[in-house]
């Protein structure tokens, strides 16, 4: 069944439209081909990555390169690359799936993989000329060559367009001469090609270039950075000293670099989210296996409520992350297909398809990168003292997880982007927030409706809650926009609070919809624990919405306005029937214990 | 002014009694002697520890030992040791102060210091015979000898009494022969003396011994453990193989070891809390200094709301930690003095004095160890990519902080202890919880009182809130005890929720009382930011109480009981006038920025 324009939500629209569970894609919808791909990636990981954990931790950069080469042989580097350039041309969901399952073993390899296939290759497939693509992409897709992405500079991190690297046209007009210093460049130590961003003259925006790595062309590398985590990921400074780049190696047009950089990051973000999923699964599995074996007080620690609670929360967040990541991935895939059907080139379609869901990409990046951190944190805690030892896998997982909140745009930047982009979409009329925001305002003035759903129907209460959480966002963000207009961006603490609400809504809704869809196909019996996870995630989400909503309201509204909004917050975050949270957690934990692994 | 029995709260009583701000000790009450001690410790740290950070990170165990030796020369190891055994015999507050300020530079040294002066020396000063004290304590106090504490075994961590190490009386009755394996022993690599816990025959409880470190006496060490953090803290396994210990080296009586171990841990816990304070101060200082220098978007990042919010929260938690740690420390000091005045020996008085506040010790251990983790976490985030580099101090601070949630009893164990001990105290009639809990129940059935404090008086609202938060605890814990009786202990998730509430109450109340006391002496003008911190801490605390209260209520109460309690929760967590949280944070951050350091 082909998705049509009408069926699928536009980016950000999840906030104002109800999605029916049939309209979302879930990991249970993987095609046979995708299942096979998944298994093959897991098998690769189990064979090549996991057993070598100690070597990665010992900064064996060569091993990372070797594994990348092997991943190339398996075809994993080419999943997203169109067939005409030597790739498999698989869809976005498949791309995500590979990112997901290949990333569990160590953040070192995961980062190398992400930097190469994402920001190292994509700018060429997305913006390259036919010649550029013919020349470079097949090599990158096969793993004959590796790519790196040089955007960041010592003075230009979050403010990516402020770089000082220059590109000057040579006198004969045949080359650009690049000078500058790039920093934190993943894969720098073994790559054959850099995507480099540099400024031409006094251009407002930077320009992208494809630069082959040739030490005789003024390219030198700094020493390997010594880092908290992802120890075997090569990260170096790259210095360009009168590096000559043929004019035909400019990417897209002059001044288009910032756009390229940002679009590459959109893809990078959602893929990074996927890349934080399988570590959560593996950490949960390692955690439960330890907890069922380790005894204290003559009892396997997995029997203690304190530990069960951790296992349940870990599994739930992983499940929520999967639900939201694959939902968004399929939206992107469908959007690309629609655009192509409308006559867009593959390139254009892919670009616009991802850009459309930039809000979701930011949301996912933040949510899943934070979940993997807390998952690893609980993983350490389950292991007690052993969690602090380099002999067990938890501490490396914890250190590796830390980077995900920093790169591909810090979580602060992504939080602000998520709300900022939404507000812009609303202003442009791409998403109608104003109408629904006004409706909420009216609702608040009126008498509360006493219409109640039939609470005996599965998820009726939860869906009502989701609808109400959306009202909280509309109420808070709506009033903030009204008060500050475009200046809202300067009120970052409000932006952050609004973003926290937005994130929880997307994650919780995705989790519920996935579960609802699966209940319909597989039966409620088979989804008991998933139902518990959906309910638990929502319960936690509601608490976060309450807190962030309150923080926002008391900080920009006074007097009667504040009172009305507090009343609204209360009304919109109140369950008719509260779930028994302890029972939910126990249900989930018992399942994880019984299967002795993450099993959803 | 000497404290008398009547003036000071018993352990756990903070929950049911109102404390007036004059009755708490604050860091602003340090005596001249204490100030001098503080400065001398800071100076030592600045000279010996901070500049050597890189060496500590490179696992230079010898440096740790050398610094310990120097700390001995400065007298820092002898602060808590009575004068008759070569110590300074300073009070508990001074002991805390040294732990606090000596711990900022690196967790490696901090751990070595804590293990030696706390669990390595204290068991002898607290439980030793006169001969044992004469023989060992002066050497430990001067740093001629170092101590270590051998409780944990591979199979006995949280369940400390379950160790398999045995002590068998020799045929001639002159020695105990110790056999067993101890694990995770801090300072093992360079200590001269071990406090060892072992079981005699089939005793229910283990017994403590003083064991001199003599390789020819069957004592061997494992390799240094490779750890996530505190890299230069020596941590090894210790094997005892027919180790002969003279009978006169038994600590206290046979079977008294578990009690010794637990009491040593009580002191260890509150000192560990103190040991997590100065790193928070230093991280905050390093963070603000970076944030005012680092520019992105042509703006020092310290100007961004997202960063200001972090700085404010970091400072606030550090300030709250100080407030609560020194409040409890002085209670302990006073309690010891009272007991001595009543005729207890110094030893007995000290033991009972600390034991009295075991609840507070657990509370502080959990709260402050979690705060230092989030402080370091935000520290990394402020540094962006540089936070991930070993070249900047944040990543080591983050790794080092992680241990504090594991040792001296995991935070799970301490959470459960805090509530468990309180309930036991109530049962024993040492703290009257039942009366107040009944009063809350009655209040809930009655018509809400409309008596309002005069909100124009500083902290009137905040104190009302604290009183209400206490009611939440009494309501939730009271009902839980009523429902489950002594079985409550098995309902760990409830225990954890109750503990989270208890912790927030103690921390928030201490913060407000400290500030109130200082406002009275120094004037409101001079305490603007402290007032903001007290209010911000409370606001966050209320949110946590709401969440944990709700979780508890919906998980053990149904129907009308649930409704009534939810109503109570709402009533008891509602401000009459909400503070503007963003404004509070900005006030705090602006001060930290202006002083370019933690300055409270
Ligand atoms: C291991 C590693 C690998 C990397 N790989 C690559 C790579 O392959 N290619 C590449 O180009 N880059 C790479 N990076 C760089 C990475 O993308 C940047 O570190 C990141 O974008 C943050 O930039 P920064 O480090 O300059 O931090 P800054 O931008 O200086 O940020 C510091 C702090 O200020 C905050 N901040 C900044 N601006 C604002 C604002 N306007 N409002 C609110 N808060 C703000 C940030 O959120 C952060 O908390 C890598 C970094 C690391 C650590
Ligand atoms: C670096 C380092 C230094 C140390 N230094 C010393 C030292 O000098 N001397 C010494 O004797 N020990 C030392 N220890 C040991 C430390 O005290 C123990 O690691 C700690 O008490 C936890 O015990 P464990 O590691 O066996 O974890 P476990 O007890 O196995 O705990 C594993 C998990 O189960 C949980 N758990 C256990 N029991 C329960 C329960 N009843 N209910 C709910 N949850 C439970 C724990 O909270 C934890 O999450 C050190 C440890 C480390 C890592």
Automatic annotation (TrEMBL), chains A, B:
Residue span, Acyl-CoA dehydrogenase/oxidase C-terminal domain: 255-417
Cofactor: FAD
Family annotation (PROSITE patterns): ACYL_COA_DH_1
Sequence ranges assigned to domain Acyl-CoA dehydrogenase-like C-terminal in this UniProt record: 468-571
Domain Acyl-CoA oxidase/dehydrogenase middle, first and last residues per copy: 148-242
Coiled-coil intervals, chain numbering: none
Protein family per UniProt: Belongs to the acyl-CoA dehydrogenase family.
Highest classification ranks of the organism: Bacteria, Pseudomonadati, Bacteroidota, Flavobacteriia, Flavobacteriales
Keywords: FAD, Flavoprotein, Oxidoreductase
Domain Acyl-CoA dehydrogenase/oxidase N-terminal stretches: 31-144
UniProt-recorded name of the protein: Alkylation response protein AidB-like acyl-CoA dehydrogenase
